[in-house]
Amino acid sequence: MKFILTYLILLFMAALASAQPKQEIFFADVTIVVENGRYYLTGSKGGGNGPQGFALLESKDLKTWSVPAESKDSLGTILTRGDHTFGTKGFWAPQIFKEKGIYYMTYTADEQTVLAESKSLFGPYRQKEVGPIDVSEKNIDSYIFKDTDGKHYLYCVRFDKGNYLYAAEFDLKTGKIKPETLKQCFGQTEPWEATPNYKSVPIMEGPTVIKLKNKYYLFYSANHFENIDYAIGYAVADSPYGPWVKSKNNPIVHRSIVGENGSGHGDLFEGLDKQLYYVYHIHNSADKVGPRRTRIVPVVRQWDDKAGVYTFSVKGNEVIVPVMAGR
């Protein structure tokens, strides 16, 4: 009888635990690294929990996430304010990439782009000389792209009565751009890039760049992040500097497609299943912006033989809601 009672109690506790809603992930301005059969997620942390900086989460399936066993603490911290790093506040939009065995992270702090590095994916990411990449203007949302000829390019947002995307050749050894190569990508030209639900100066941000068949594809977000119409589109060019031709199918991620407000600012990656995905954030709820929630959506890539370019769309009915394990 005692054994049966214990079994029933355990069964009840298991049922109660399974009935509890799983904790969603509140990372904004997100990116995912794929390495050694695992996915690693980082982004701007929401909710004000923990120190200023960035944390890393791990998953095998994109759905359930946890702090990696290799992490230095229970939060998965990989970069911290004041630990040989530039910035006092506003730690946003990290990107991680690997070059010759070294892991690099670009991020925003104090409205400046920053480069830090680590010998391990799990950090800590630090700077040899503490400082931003380019102090000539406020700039945010950095993305470093390596071309097939080995050259690196920094894409970022510079402030000029609005947020505009710029490209410049980047010297990875010095951590600086080549100023003479700096060029604006494009301006605000399309109706979807500025909608009346939230009036603001022109805003284009959150760049990701890939190269396919000698064409460059620049994915970006437009509208103010507090706008319910915050959305993602892309443009195509024959060089890293453009000129860029925006897709007629833009936006490819928008609340009308994925069903949630404020869908934007993320990164494109190839999954372990060879499927393309885009990771992004959404508003917290229908009437509240933050803390923003993380989402992942499968991407469809199709070759347009007539135009000689790839076209991109997403499977808006297959959005993944990543959650924390054991919650």
Automatic annotation (TrEMBL):
From the UniProt annotation, give the residues forming the signal peptide: 1-19
Short name of any one Pfam family annotated for the protein: Glyco_hydro_43
Does the keyword section mention Transferase?
no
Give the species this sequence originates from. Dyadobacter fermentans
Q: Which InterPro entries match?
A: Glyco_hydro_43, Glyco_hydro_beta-prop_sf, Glycosyl_Hydrlase_43_Enz
The entry's keywords: Carbohydrate metabolism, Glycosidase, Hydrolase, Polysaccharide degradation, Signal, Xylan degradation
Q: Does the keyword Repeat apply?
A: no
What family name appears in the similarity comment?
Belongs to the glycosyl hydrolase 43 family.
Question: Which protein are we looking at?
Answer: Beta-xylosidase
